[in-house]
Design goal:
83% helix; 0% strand; disordered C terminus
């Protein structure tokens, strides 16, 4: 694999750390700023809203910017957003800082996925994209637990200062390792928008919104579930987050080869497994080893969905994949925001700390239904195209010219 993929993975590590660390710090932020855990959960949604807004907007604004320069500009904005979060004087300012930090997320992964895919041969593109996403998963093994422990010991502000430093390291890696890539001559905002309007692209984005929301309905409150439902101490939160990260890494490692081999079956299988794990999760919390196993499995099946969804929208967008790829991360973060909100609503309604898992299972089933519908429509479209090709072939045209009398005589 090219070294440029390492630079993309380092950047993804920083982004993954700041995106997911808030889940582990929710109790600490809530105590420090005098609010409840469900209300502090809006900080998860704030980051996601930044991604949803920033992905299409920044991608469109940067459509004529060379890809390497665009990656550097986006990582610089990411670093500024995390510094603003660290220095936020109150809850409102922290919300704004989280939105700012989230703005470049989707655009970075959208551009980064296109760059990663073009660094390798076509039959290894899913693996290249999955390698970039490994930075996200390693963040959940190392970055998020370490940053959570740091925030618990030195205060949550120290976490965002460290993430800002990671952003600077990522910028140096991008500058040194990513090659300059000329813009495509036909690349334009209009072409990207037309590709985004493809029915299969839209259904892929909708699948991500519902399917991945099931993961975040649980993960957003995993720190509180660890202490309130599983019954472990606060010091065990970092272990649980690391186990989730291990599961994510296993899922990401499997996703690349499986997607290269069979994209849609990988997507269907991962969403089905996600629904089953979420249904089972509440029944595991009374036995510690079962609960921890379920956390690993949730991370694995949840992130097994990311690469097939990413490759699906890129392939269906054909030669204008950047905006579609970035919008996929808007979809993932709509899932983030929606899952966190619905999970928090279930807890606030008094349904219990594990109730978000049942909410998530319903969302995963809806995502699977959308994915299956998209697959059937795609199969019908492919069949119709094939029939038109056959009808327009020279042999078919020759047969059409045969006179009825010739057909009647058997000639």
């Amino acid at each position: 694999m090219p070294l440029a993929l390492l630079a993309l993975a380092v950047s993804a590590f920083g982004i993954g750390t700041t995106e997911f660390v808030m889940m582990g710090l929710l109790p600490n932020v809530a105590d420090d700023l005098g609010t409840s855990v469900p209300t502090a959960g809006h900080l998860v949604s704030a980051y996601a809203i930044g991604v949803v807004i920033g992905a299409p907007l920044l991608t469109a604004l940067g459509s004529r910017v060379p890809r390497k320069r665009m990656l550097l500009l986006l990582m610089a904005l990411f670093t500024v957003g995390n510094l603003a979060s660290a220095l936020a004087p109150g809850f409102g300012a922290l919300l704004a800082g989280r939105v700012l930090a989230g703005l470049p997320h989707g655009a970075f992964f959208g551009v980064g996925a296109v760059v990663a895919a073009r660094l390798v041969r076509e039959h290894r593109q899913a693996r290249a994209v999955a390698t970039m996403f490994l930075g996200l998963t390693v963040a959940n093994i190392v970055g998020v637990p370490a940053a959570t422990a740091l925030g618990q010991q030195l205060g949550w502000r120290s976490t965002f200062l460290v993430v800002s430093a990671i952003g600077l390291v990522a910028m140096a890696a991008l500058a040194g390792l990513v090659p300059n890539m000329p813009l495509d001559a036909h690349q334009s905002v209009g072409r990207e928008l037309r590709a985004l309007g493809d029915r299969q692209v839209l259904l892929g984005l909708l699948t991500a919104v519902f399917g991945f929301a099931g993961v975040f309905a649980v993960y957003s409150y995993l720190a509180s579930m660890t202490t309130e439902a599983i019954g472990l101490g606060e010091s065990s939160v970092t272990l649980v987050l690391a186990l989730f990260g291990i599961g994510m890494t296993l899922g990401a490692l499997a996703a690349g080869p499986l997607t290269d081999r069979a994209l849609r079956p990988t997507l269907y299988g991962s969403l089905t497994a996600l629904a089953l794990v979420l249904v089972a999760f509440p029944f595991t919390v009374h036995t510690t080893w079962l609960a921890l196993t379920a956390v690993v499995m949730l991370g694995a099946v949840g992130f097994l969905t990311t690469t097939p969804l990413q490759m699906l929208v890129m392939r269906k967008a054909q030669d204008a994949p950047t905006l579609a790829s970035a919008s996929n991360h808007s979809a993932f973060n709509l899932a983030n925001a929606g899952g966190a909100w619905l999970g928090g609503a279930a807890i606030a309604a008094g349904w219990g700390w594990t109730s978000p898992a049942f909410v998530g299972a319903v969302l995963a089933v809806v995502g699977l239904a959308i994915a299956a519908t998209a697959g059937l429509l795609d199969r019908d479209r492919t069949a119709k195209r094939a029939s038109r090709v056959v009808a327009g072939s020279p042999l078919a045209q020759e047969q059409e010219t045969v006179s009825p009398s010739s057909r009647a005589s058997g000639s």
